[in-house]
Amino acid sequence: MSGRLEGRLIALGVTGSIAAYKAVELLRLLTAEGADVVVLLSPSATRFVGPLTFAALSRHAVESELMELLPDGRIGHIVIADSADAVVVAPATAHWLGAMASGMAGDVVTATCLATSAPVIAAPAMDGDMWRHPATSGNVERLRTAFGYTVVEPGSGPLASGQSGIGRLADLPLIVDAVVAAVAGRPVRAPDPAARPPRVDGVVREPDLVGRHVVVTAGGTREPIDPVRYIGNRSSGRMGVAIAEAALDRGARVTLIAAATSVALPDDRAAVIPVETTGELRAALLATLFGGAGEGFGDAMAGGAANGAGGGAPESATARFDALVMAAAVSDFRPTQAPDHKLERGAGMTLELEPTPDLLAEVSRITHGLDSTGAATRLALVPAPVLVGFAAETGSLDRAPDKLRRKGVDLLVANDVMDPDSGFGTETNRVVILDADGGRDELPLLSKREVADRVLDGVVARMDARTPAEQTGAMSEVSR
Ligand code: CTP
Questions:
Q1: Which of 131, 162, 195 is the last residue of a domain?
Q2: For the segment 289-303, what is each residue's pLDDT rounded down to a tens digit?
Q3: Residues with active-site annotation
Q4: What domain range is 258 assigned to?
Q5: Is residue 333 classed as helix, strand or coil in its secondary structure?
Q6: 299 and 439 within one domain
Q7: Is 413 close to ligand 1, i.e. is its CB under 6 Å away?
Q8: Per-residue model confidence as pLDDT tens digits over 333-350
Q9: Closest-CA residue to 372 (of 297, 320, 291, 319)
């Protein structure tokens, strides 16, 4: 019995009947037959079952708004109409049958049916008198004969009205059988996943970062050797950009500080600050997080890191950011000198390199009110921002817990860049998320977008777990 819909895309339209909850089980049965299922909800259906349940089970974003575009700009219900092998509307209300019979495309379910050349299967559910009404019979007749739709008639039994009679949604296996029969013998319409609505790996997140300012760094820094050459690294920026996009989708205000990247940046939605060198990245971080290198914390950071001399006391320790996710691959070394002319080829050359400052460790110290000696000499920021570091390791993640402590971060996302699925430029990543309380979450191989959401889940959890003192600054001389 299983696998009769293998490789098929089935659109499941749900309209506003009390039987809408049964569509969740229908989705499960269609999936068990091997189908890729995408769910369309009419506005009244959303009052019976929330889109989150369908999204989590179908691994597709739910279509419920006629005017809403897919993230890539395509029109959702048209993509579904053009790629689905069948549209099954279950439960179909009396209202939906009437709207459909008259071609009134006021919601995503009717609009998809109007726009598709795929077979349509409708499974009505309603009160018995409504089902027997000539208006309903006429509409059903028109859908059958003029439109060629399959109608899986309702069954008899107890109804929501308390009465007993005809009107119950047909048994779900009968509806699945009707879908199987409708597609039998037809070629798969859109075997290429790119032509279908995009799949999401995980649960679609709630907008849980509304009102938060999330700062993300991405890409690889480049250190000039001379005006035409640089020391760089193989970071594509994909992971950092995925974090920025995920934070935007969850409602955050995002500042993306972008070193060299080879992916599109969400510059229409985020404030993007392009940088090239570690020095520029540092200046952009100072300006964004602490209000500029020339004031308060910025001076403290620059002076403190270089020679132990702090800047003036800050006027306010109110944080300008809620989280920093440091996904950039920061160069660890830079040439001590970069001449302003192109170096000529000679017999050979030796580059003298100096270490760059550890930006994350410095940001952490300032955030927690510590100077470069580790002494609590100034106000910690409130509410305490959540700091996230990345650790690209080769071969073993043994050094990660020490790196988390050394950098003073709340979360450290460690991965092995030698793993072919997790290296630079891949679409996927296999990471371990360590937290400052000793927690260790080993995630399976996931898309970078899903890794981004898992990291942000950790960020949100730590924000929510902040003590009242950390929220308000009642105890602002906190040191870690
Ligand atoms: N990082 C930073 N400043 C640097 C180097 C790295 O802020 N000069 C940040 C990275 O953005 C990343 C984290 O620190 O979030 C860890 O980077 P990684 O290169 O793995 O750590 P390193 O400090 O370079 O440690 P090691 O060289 O021992 O691996």
A1: 195
A2: 998 653 344 434 333
A3: 233
A4: 213-341+350-478
A5: strand
A6: yes
A7: no
A8: 999 998 899 988 887 888
A9: 297
